[in-house]
Design goal:
Layout lengths: L2 E9 L7 E8 L5 E8 L4 E9 L12 E9 L2 E10 L4 E4 L3 E4 L2 E2 L4 E4 L12 H13 L4 E4 L9
Parallel strand pairs: 10-11
Antiparallel strand pairs: 1-4, 2-3, 2-5, 5-6, 7-8, 8-9
Length: 154
């Protein structure tokens, strides 16, 4: 609860000799909670940032942060992007089982297939969200997916 460490790796595949990655992490409200930069070495960079008193991701309160990054070379922006992520602490041991953010949690779930019945195998974001929402309403807090990667914002 006092501090979280975010570690992000970058790999640049295009030409960039003196590149620098600048990144910042924002809370859901848009507050900047961490920032940093790292120079590219052989097209790769590893950036480590610290977040004081992070808002933790939980199954019932999925607090998401946004990482916004920029690739610069000689002061010129070459590329930029963003990704969502959650900060949480996961612990597993034989005495206490699975714990999320220090709280014991029983995993209740099942294996689901990649398709959406009559809609077929294409992953429509709304259909994927509906499927996960219905599973969560039924008491699931864990799923194992089969075949194609899952997408969605559930």
């Amino acid at each position: 609860p006092e501090r979280a460490v975010i570690q992000v790796s970058f790999e640049v595949t295009g030409p960039c000799e003196n590149g620098v990655i600048r990144a910042r992490a924002e809370s859901e409200s848009g507050e900047i909670v961490a920032a940093g930069q790292a120079a590219l070495e052989n097209g790769k960079a590893l950036l480590t940032m610290s977040v004081a008193q992070p808002e933790l991701w939980d199954v019932d309160a999925p607090a998401l942060h946004t990482l916004r990054w920029t690739l610069l070379e000689n002061g010129e922006t070459l590329d930029a992007g963003e990704a969502s992520f959650g900060i949480r602490k996961i612990e597993i041991d034989p005495q206490n089982g699975f714990r999320l953010n220090g709280k014991p949690m029983k995993l209740r779930g099942g294996c689901i297939h990649h398709d959406n019945a009559m809609l077929g195998a294409c992953a429509y974001p709304d259909a994927e969200c509906r499927k996960i929402r219905r599973l969560k309403d039924a008491g699931y807090n864990a799923i194992r997916t089969a075949h194609n990667p899952q997408i969605g914002r559930a």
